[in-house]
User: Fold this.
Amino acid sequence: MKSKFPTFYSITQSKIINFYFSPLLESYKLRKLFKYACGVRMRKLYVAVVVAVLVMIIASFLVWNYLDQLSALKHETDRWAAIQDVNGDRIAVEPTSDIVWEQLVQLHENKSERFVGSIIEEYGNKWGFRFKPENITIAEVTVEGMQATMRHISEDLDYWLELGLIVYVSATVTEIHSEAESSEVQF
Assistant:
């Protein structure tokens, strides 16, 4: 039967254990406490870093998209219109003809779709081309072989430049900008 009172051996054993191993036990407790505190801090730091990276990625995407749109709508005059093709791609057109300009304004007001075309020339925008301002025309019907999208023209630019004919894009007018207007009109 076991005694309820500690024996000399058990007292001596606990004293020896406490004497030799107490620094290790204390350091173990401190290490465990330190690991816990660092773990909490590290988790918070990890979450903060992940959030910061996500914010930077989203901000970069938004800035890139904005700059991409600016490049697509590059223009040289104060009177220009933005047209959007069936793929949602946009480009600026700057007609020199007042008749064509009025047609573009009318298309914008009616929100209708027509073929906008011209001879193309190389240009420093997103697409690598623009419609020559002096040749821009608006049409309801065109020859199918002369119809394209902006992406298609851009991907095979040499072909369309060598062709030297009017190329048409089925488009809607999304913006009108004029020196007479003080603010831009969009939808």
Remarks:
- Residues 1-72 form one domain.
